[in-house]
Specification:
Six copies of one chain form a homohexamer.
Chain A lengths: L23 E12 L2 H12 L4 H14 L1 H4 L8 E11 L4 E12 L4 H19 L7 E11 L6 E2 L2
Antiparallel strand pairs in A: 1-3, 1-4, 2-3, 4-5
Chain lengths: ~160, ~160, ~160, ~160, ~160, ~160
């Protein structure tokens, strides 16, 4: 197992130097879910079908969060994101919305945190917009499901 | 069940007017967890006991995120936070860190999103600082556990 | 005619002191338009009627911009916005989208700049999302149409 | 006519992938105007000739806005701006200030939105600093007048 | 001597609760200096007398920094600033620019950090704008010189 | 002596064009100090040795400030920082904490301002966290001590 690369020799935080790394195409896919009452999901869905669109706001928030990741996560490098796509699946059986973000960059580091941050903020936005009718929603299983590019090689999670 | 208050009459988003609401003391407690390999938890713990302190950075990030909530969550009001405390429990049995944030305000609205945002960003910070040794961490069960103050009354979650 | 209140006695900028002003309910309505090719308007409209929704993103951007006004406009006070609503009218006759923002606060100053900023950023967002098919769009007639509350009294523009 | 590139296949927003695009030198020039009372223009002008300088603050605000464009415009890529210049023309005949911004980058996308955003925020800053004496100012004709570099080729507007 | 109020009982950071404090009028004055070559000071001065105005940009930057203080300083409360004034003295004898910021608020906490932050960022802006001709400038003696309002009473420094 | 490169031909600010500059590896080291009462230093030190860690928060704040430099300093380019390390020396003889930041980038411009900004904000954070017991702290001697890379060549200060 490697070192905890963000901790310097005095045990205090640093932002690790990636200056020697080559620029490569990098892609990361993250997922997460928000569980809610069936009634809440129904209302989101009707909104989507009509004109109201909780998921459109959540998607916009997630994309903006991805771009803001290095301001929110202290030791995370600022990078230039080349693209982000998000997808939402309304799961009536489990009364949940499943969220997926796929972000890409061409650079020396990244792009896991950007995808994970997009998913987290999209989920929080759904919570915010529906909390008046359902305070018991749970945001869960935010994880990296796929990563390609970079020195550490590809990763495939669950 | 009430209305989805963030959706206006055309089905498009709005920030609901809270101008008529009274200023009250409001407190919200949110929790969440990040599951990891036992080795990762051990390393965080040793860092804490020694000098390195992943959790101190995560706590700082969470507190800063709370203050930045209205910039990240589109329909969330900007409010003046009067205090935030965070707590981290290292759970060896389940190989997880449990995160709690308690934020307070005196105002017309809030403060659930600030506490939830603090927990989410603290968890993402732990992920970021440990991802070099453990890409399979999962952030889970982010939820509101308690809220007091405001017109909608108190809430007690699980 | 009064003084240019943002210029101090040395001719350099300052943020004027509003500490002695009373807290009052304040509302400001701003409007603006973006002119485009008929084809562009048709595409926005179809997007809206289907599922794609340029205006939903523009509305989200406008609301977020309103909250960020004091960071963008140097001498503008940071205030707590109590509510924002935006409206978009698709005008086929003139091949334009007309944008309106109504923001409110309870405070010592504001809230004209927040409404104007919301309109400007919503218009820029429409430009950004449609520029691949129409670089000649024009953003025009951003102005204050109504203001109530505050010491300077009500204002009614055109 | 091409596709509305920011709308994904489900009709929801995305940030288009520019990872395959080559790095090229890109320049964009945007213009806009703010119309006001002759008295207001005279006061700005005297300020400039003396020491007070509304336009210096507006110019600073415009340049800072250009750098912040990807945080304000949801689907806009974050890019590294290599330079920005702004110019202001005081037009007594029409009682207006005409604003021009010229921003450049070396990259895969941009830089129209940065120039347009600089013009819009500079105009809003003038409004903010003069609104105590003239609430009827109008910000108008914000448009792209020139763009060079990038795959879509050069553009020359009016 | 009191407690280090930002450190919680586990030795980790928190944002102290000010919810029980009364709203009072608060003023804080901070000062600092930047020392430079005589030639650099001469150039700044000529710029000011002509049209170029390093100090106008520095003043704008300082005021914007004051408003952004709670985003930059982790445990600092976000407050509503009611006014800020800055002053610059060009000291030829010591070849320095002396900077003063006076910020005010009506609230439960603050406003020392806002004034100190304004001074620091104004000094850094002067450094940035002159570094092409003078890399050896020193920013020094940033300190609180006066504070009034609040429970801890008035403070008068040197 | 060269030109004040941030002032344009009309004497107003601009962000200088670095588009023609080559990408080179750049490193800048900045230092600064904060002087305080012996008691304050002792408390910080005990906090560090125990569990509380003012310096860990200050270090996190400094690193985040480095990444945010182009938002705070008006004419400063936004660049991609490849790494930052900070170091703190507790100097009992002089009752001070000495702060050092070393930031690096691979790019066309930078990285002095990022290192200087990190030092300044770290010092302000120490002030903020200890001000309850010591309002008389002084932040001093913020300066560039070393720079390498870039067309202007290496610099070695004191």
């Amino acid at each position: 197992m490697g070192e905890l690369s963000h901790i310097d020799k005095n045990g205090r935080p640093r932002m690790v130097d990636v200056g020697e790394k080559a620029d490569t195409k990098r892609i990361a896919v993250a997922k997460g879910s928000i569980f809610m009452k069936p009634e809440t999901l129904r209302r989101i869905k009707e909104g989507t079908m009509d004109k109201g669109d909780v998921l459109s706001v959540a998607q916009t928030a997630g994309i903006m969060a991805a771009k803001n990741t290095s301001s929110a996560i202290p030791m995370c490098h600022n990078i230039m994101i080349t693209g982000i796509e998000m997808d939402f699946i309304m799961d009536e059986e489990n009364s949940a919305v499943h969220i997926e973000a796929c972000a890409s960059t061409v650079g020396k580091t990244g792009i896991e945190m950007e995808s994970l941050h997009a998913v987290a903020v999209a989920a929080l936005t759904i919570y915010d917009m529906c909390k008046a009718i359902d305070r018991g929603m749970r945001i869960t299983d935010i994880r990296l499901v796929k990563k390609s590019g970079g020195k550490s090689g590809d990763y495939l999670g669950g």
